[in-house]
């Protein structure tokens, strides 16, 4: 019931509306509008461009490369409608998968993870944050 109480109080254009609850055979059910376009997970499967970019980022990190400037304008779509990660001007090859880079104070503010605002080095984590902001 705590979930229902929390959900009931939320009113936002990007939060699924809550209509109420009902109980049947000792099970509590939530009532909301039916959304027929599926979930984000299903969308990504149907639109693999996002998966392609995530795979490119996984590949970079597995090879010790921090991109340093992940954002929508650095993902190009080729003639086969495949996403291609580009602009490696801020990239840095690290010594290991856990090592951060020494790049500081460069990149695009809107896509930077908060620690970069305070001059922390770019890292695999900051790339992942930028990718999440991008999608």
Automatic annotation (TrEMBL):
Pfam families: Pkinase (PF00069). Signal peptide: none annotated. SMART domains: S_TKc (SM00220). GO terms for molecular function: ATP binding; protein serine/threonine kinase activity. Residues 1-135 form the Protein kinase domain. SUPFAM superfamilies: Protein kinase-like (PK-like) (SSF56112). This is Protein kinase domain-containing protein.
